[in-house]
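Below is our example:
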Amino acid sequence: MNRSLAAVATLLVLSFALLGETDADVDPLSSDACGPQPLKSDGSAWVCAFDDEFDGTELDRTRWVPQTTHFSTGTPEAHACYVDDPQNVSVSGGTLNLTVRTLGAPVPCLSDPALAPSPYTSGSVSTYHLFSQQYGRFEARVKVEATSDPGLQETFWLWPDDRVATGEVWPLAGEIDVLESYSVNPDLGIPFLHYSGNDNGGPIPGTNTAWDCIAPRGAYNTWTLEWSPTELKVEVNARTCLVNTSGDPAFQKPYIVAFTQALGTTGNVYDGRAPLPATLSVDYVHVWK
């Protein structure tokens, strides 16, 4: 290696160390569309399969679909209707912004007609029928509204691609919540895996969820899922907080990627104190295979 390449490599390694990564995690001389390539446990590099840096001025609809049907969050008394509106779903300043806000008067909840009209609307996007992947490394750098008042919930999650036939329904069909953030827990992010009998037993820390993933609201945190046929590992800011080795059939098929800004439910119901509008900001999302 010549001196100039060595200097560049050293600077990159130092930069990644400051970000919580080390030269054991990333090859500083190898990059692709997702940037410097993380290394697998066998020393080979992950290869970029999907990338959005949100550097434009509007949502890239070749990658993302705003949610407008079959989805709402909150309670019957305080729920957000999902709409495709630039005040709820936007891209600016290098981020994807999903915002829950208050309207002047209640409107019909077209995303869930069974619900009563609501004065709250919000944004949710996914790669529905545009991109899905089975196994790999999924990562996003996200920030949620800084508050400890109840009522806000945000999610970086994966959902089974419905183009792949399955005889199961949720939760047996599976769901991978890399991050669920609740404003009543302002210093935590909570991963949660939905599958088979574990849902019948509720949350089981260390198996299908974790309650010690430090991720303060109001600051950017980097969430990573590494998923193989035998293991799902969730990290926040390069710290492992959940490892699941069930190898459950629910996790043996392609999943889409989604982000949601929500109003909260049980134990985190919106009562008017949490600040609105409130925004989930996504700096980037990378998927490797």
User: Anything to note?
Assistant: The radius of gyration is 19 Å. DSSP finds one helix and 20 strands in the chain. The CA atoms of residues 30 and 259 lie 29 Å apart. Confidence is low (pLDDT under 50) at residues 1-24.
